[in-house]
Amino acid sequence: MSQETDISHPSQTELLLRYLERERDNLGRALEGLSDYDVRRPMTPTGTSLLGLVKHVAGVTLGYFGDCVGRPSGIDLPWDDEESSVQNGDMWATADETRAELLDLYARAWVHADESVRSLGLDAPATVPWWPEERRETTLGYLTVHMLAEIAHHAGHADILREEIDGRGGRDQAEVGDAEWWEAYVARVQAAADAHRD
Question: 192 in a domain, yes or no?
């Protein structure tokens, strides 16, 4: 069996794509079961929302795995237009943008990204025009690792935002303990913090 098809020994390309898929699924899963209001509402002083994170990741995915490697997706992102009146438009969902549309954009962005990586290879040249000039010329492999870090970062944000909305934690919350276990655990953490309260 070749290394390319052996599940226990995937190629570097397939390993990176597997981890990207895991993290993008983690981010998308944070929206499951929530109302349209809850996925849109700002949860931090800077306006971060769950659907905003999904929209942002979809947009940067299309940029890095499309335009930067010479494979434009052809997908229009109106908020990226320099003449757009929507400030910071990639970080929040306007009232006119539906959840279904943005989740579809997210899915299409990742299909395009995976195709770019598989068809071009990790050594393919890439140019990131918004990076400093001395780092602008790079490779698709570097961008793949960059995006793995970015999406994992935002998936972590999403876990915390989701927990703030309805108490549902990350993937392993139920495996670690039930509601009673978590209540006792949080009480222990609070007691440790209280020992240092001024």
Answer: no
